[in-house]
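Objective 1b: paired records.
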Amino acid sequence: MAKFTVKNVEFDFDIFDADNAELYEIETEKVRKESLKTVKSEKLSQKIRRIGNVVCQAIDTIFGEGKSHELFGDKVNLTDIALTFKQIDFELTKATNAEQTEMLNNVNKSND
């Protein structure tokens, strides 16, 4: 179970559960695609809200309803949202790598 904190909000997520891993992959891909999408004649404020909402929906889908509100409140600031999402990904990757190392060490010890 990966445990980490971003913006004083605690996260617990079992990335080694296949369903959770798949959910994470699907939601992060949605965010990536939406970030790259160009909508003709879209105003900057509309783009900020569109991308911000997709990221917040992904966070809530992955980590539980209301988690994005804990992070951002009612504000939709794309810089804050994007940096926070990137930080979540970094912290989850770091926690996952640490867990993998620990598991491999335990396997190696049991094989000795």
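Objective 1b, second protein:
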Amino acid sequence: MVLVTNYSFAQPSKIDSLVAIIVEANVVSGYTKGINVIISEEYQAYKGLIEICKTEELISLCQHQNACVRCYAFLALLNKNRTLAEEIKHKNSIDNEKVTLINGCFGQRISVSDFMKSRGREIENPYGFKF
């Protein structure tokens, strides 16, 4: 007999919802974005990944087909387990897919591997990302 709780079904759907927000935005943004200095939905989704994802789930998301999801998953993993995040960084050292980074009103294109090497400092917020 196998016991299955509602919890096991709730988490994947919540994770899928957060990932969908990041995929739809298709940018990696810092704490705020745009001239109105709003907290972006994708940043909020990233914070949600930190809260609800297990380490194994973040490792899996670091291999997601969407480059922005890979970047946010890496940052979340960095917050949970720096050693594993460093391993992911080395495994993705040739991930040359480009992402658009937005920090406030400024944007730039950078490869996923360069983003991971810099540990996301391009979008660092003194109140949010702490490395």
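Residues 12-123 form one domain. The beta strands are 28-33, 38-39, 98-104, 106-111.
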